[in-house]
Structure formats: C-alpha cells, structure tokens
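Input structure tokens:
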C-alpha cells in the first residue's frame, strides 16, 4: 500500500513538474515532490489540492520538508501556462481556486470555460446556473423567484433577513436570541416557555425509552409485532435484498424533477453520468442541503468526487428548511423516500449502494433518516451537523461519517461529538473527523472538496448488509 501511495504521488509530480514556481512544495523522502496548495493538515496527514483537480493525501512519515507559498502565486503561474482554448484545463483550475479560497478567480475561470464551450454543463453549475424547462437560469433569477434575498453574500428567506436585522444569532440553521443560544449549546430544548433536558423533552412528546433509544408508541408496537411473528420459534425470517432495481426509461444528464408527495409538488435535481443504462447498475447518492441553501451547493462539492461514479439526487427543502420550513415539511422524510423509489423505477440502481449525506440542517436530517432507515442506506455522512435525537432506530445500523470544524460558528462542535457518542453507543460504525481550531468565521461551516472526498471514500467502502 505504501509503495502504491508513493507511485501515485510521483505520478502527480510528473504531471505538475512544469507547474507553478511559487506554491506549497512538499518534498518527499523518496526524492519526489508534490506541488499544490495545502488545504488541511493533521498530526499524521497533509492534504494538498493540485491545479489539475486532484486531492492528494500525504502521510507525514513520507514528507521530508514543506516549503510554503501563496495561492495567488500558483494561480498567476498556472494562468500563464494554460492553453487559452483548453476548456477542461480552465475548469480544473477553477475548481482548484475554489478549494484554496480564490472565489473571484474561480468565477473568472468558469466564465472562460463557457466562452470556449457554451455547452459545458459543469461550468454553468459552478456559476450557479440551473436548467429549468430545458433552459439555463442564473442563480439570482432562480433564488429570487423562490422568494429569497441576499444578505452578506448568502441567500436567506425574507423572514430570516428580518431576524438577522433584529440581532438574532444562528444556531444550526435557526435564528435564536443570544440568551437562548447559550442554553441550546448545553443540550437543552425549549418547549413553550420551559427549557427541558433531552429526556424531559422526549417524555413530553409521548416517546417511550426502549433499549436505550426513544421510540414512538407506533414504532414500539411495530417492533413487538416483528419479534412475535418469526418464521419458526427459533429462527427469524431471512430478509432477502434484491441487488438491482432494474428501472428503465431514465436519461443521462442533469434534470430538474418534480414529484407529488401527499398532494404537494416537490422538486429535486438529478445528475446521471453518461454510462448509466439498463444493463449497468449505478450507486445512488442523496444530498441534503442546509437551511436557505440549495441543491446546487451540494452538487458543487460532490459532483467532482462522485459525479462520474454514481447518480446524485439533491432535493429542495420547502422554504429552505428541512422539517420546519412549512406545514408540509412534516412530509420531508416521505419525500426523500418517495424520491428514491421514483429514481429506482427510472434507473437501474445498485440497491446495496444507496448513500445519504447532508450539510448543516441537512446533516441533522441525515442523522434522523440514517438512524431510522439503516435497512436502506449503506452509509451516511453528516457534514457540519450533529445529533438530532436517537429516535425510532431501525434494526440494521447504518455506518456514519461525521465532519466538523472545532470553531464552527453555526453548529456547536459538542453536537457533532454527541452524535458520534450516541451512534457508537447504539452499535453504529462511525468515522469522525474534527478539524482542530478554525477562526470562527462562516468558512468554518462551509463544505470543502477534501471533506466531500473523504465522505465519498467512506461510502465506497460500505455496502448494505443483507441478513
């Protein structure tokens, strides 16, 4: 494995040997080197984003010396060496600019891509365009049509904009007073005018504690029926899982799809790689955006790492918030499940490879769905999210990947740590990645290509277990 790692790194070096003269240069103890920009560093690994779109993880033991430069320097050098007619090269450089925080330069590169190749869908996605009715629509046009307004570079609902002006503080994806924020960080929940502990909260909602988890009365009755009706007194019935959905009729490409859920029209974005067909089953990755965000935000980070290998479905939350956006938000879990069923009917899905990941409030929603549907999701990813309550767990335990920056300004790191703790206590496999420190700004809450790559790598190593 070590030898393969070194060979991969040397291959990257050969591709980049003519690259920037001023950048982060990682000298390997084998004599090779990797040129790029360090985007993450832990006690045992250095993660480097290279100008040709690769994310390289280098073990500290393989590093002899690191010479650091600036992102602006490597960008200036790469621009000089780019073929002005090579759309793919400009696109890869644009992705790299995003990784290292050069947002203005990233936009410039994506615009150049479209100028060279107007049909370059990925570049349009990066610039926030979406296809509506077969036409590309700008982000501004789409978000304003949905009732959002801009505030400090972010899209927010008009109601949330008013709360910001009144001095409310973000907690997760909600706006609360500064006094309430301190209590929420301690794990308390507010019901009416009273602050309750988690146990008090679930008792007040009529939940029952069963084998260490809170369950509804209906869920408990379901469990009792399943336990009391085995095929034989000493043997439980074996659940056989089909390997493929064998769906037909779906087309490759990017689509905006509508589906009716309990009388309400819901929407999701679907990206299907060109190789998918009736005879080639594909994994399915479901992505849940955060409050006042959008599917495109998730696709921007996951498409480069998973878009060539899986079908990606990214649903819209009503009024920008999962579970609390509108009255119909109570149907959000059913929406996600119905969406998956619709996709299974239209495409040949590898049923042991259905994955779920969410950012921010979408991460909290992922905790809920992953706990309750371990018989559907092969693995789940919570990105800048945390514990939403271990309620109505399925018998099969889905593995979880959890990512958080210690000083995330929107989600207290204690919530992610609590998610890890409660999942492990209940028999789930958990890969936990907490980035130490941070500067407490909004960037500490945002996704990175590196964390999405790590999440996808975790997914690839898991498939749904059959009994």
């Amino acid at each position: 494995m070590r030898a393969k790692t070194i060979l991969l790194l040397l291959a990257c070096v050969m591709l980049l040997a003519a690259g920037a003269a001023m950048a982060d240069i990682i000298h390997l103890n084998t004599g090779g080197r990797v040129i790029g920009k360090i985007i993450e560093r832990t006690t045992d690994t250095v993660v480097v984003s290279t100008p040709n779109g690769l994310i390289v993880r280098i073990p500290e033991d393989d590093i002899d010396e690191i010479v650091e430069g600036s992102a602006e320097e490597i960008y200036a050098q790469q621009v000089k060496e780019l073929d002005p007619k090579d759309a793919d090269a400009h696109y890869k450089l644009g992705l790299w600019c995003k990784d290292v925080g050069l947002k203005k330069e990233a936009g410039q590169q994506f615009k150049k891509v479209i100028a060279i190749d107007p049909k370059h869908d990925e570049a349009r996605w990066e610039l926030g365009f979406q296809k509506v009715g077969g036409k590309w629509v700008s982000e501004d046009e789409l978000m304003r049509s949905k009732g959002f307004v801009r505030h400090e570079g972010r899209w927010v609902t008009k109601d949330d904009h008013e709360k910001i002006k009144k001095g409310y503080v973000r907690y997760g994806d909600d706006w609360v007073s500064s006094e309430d924020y301190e209590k929420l960080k301690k794990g308390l929940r507010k019901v009416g005018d009273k602050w309750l502990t988690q146990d008090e909260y679930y008792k007040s909602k009529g939940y029952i504690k069963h084998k260490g988890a809170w369950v509804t009365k209906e869920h408990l009755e379901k469990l009792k029926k399943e336990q009391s009706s085995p095929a034989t007194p000493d043997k439980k019935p074996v659940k056989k899982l089909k390997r493929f959905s064998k769906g037909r009729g779906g087309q490759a490409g990017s689509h905006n799809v509508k589906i009716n859920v309990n009388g309400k029209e819901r929407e999701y974005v679907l990206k299907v790689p060109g190789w998918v067909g009736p005879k080639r089953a594909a994994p399915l990755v479901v992505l849940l955006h955060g409050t006042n965000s959008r599917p495109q935000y998730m696709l921007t980070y996951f498409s480069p790492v998973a878009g060539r290998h899986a079908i990606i479905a990214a649903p819209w939350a009503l009024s920008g918030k999962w579970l609390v956006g509108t009255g119909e938000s109570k149907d959000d879990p059913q929406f996600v499940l119905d969406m998956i069923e619709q996709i299974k009917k239209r495409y040949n899905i590898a049923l042991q490879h259905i994955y779920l990941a969410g950012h921010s409030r979408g991460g909290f929603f992922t905790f809920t769905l992953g706990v309750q549907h371990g018989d559907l999701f092969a693995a789940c990813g919570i990105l800048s999210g945390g514990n939403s309550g271990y309620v109505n767990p399925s018998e099969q335990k889905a593995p979880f990947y959890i990512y958080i920056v210690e000083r995330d300004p929107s989600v207290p790191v204690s919530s992610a740590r609590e998610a890890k703790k409660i999942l492990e206590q209940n028999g789930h496999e958990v890969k936990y990645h907490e980035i130490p420190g941070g500067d407490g700004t909004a960037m500490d809450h945002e996704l990175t290509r590196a964390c999405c790559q790590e999440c996808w790598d975790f997914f690839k190593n898991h498939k749904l277990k059959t009994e």
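Confidence is low (pLDDT under 50) at residues 1-22. Residues 253-460 form a domain with the Rossmann fold fold (CATH 3.40.50.1820).
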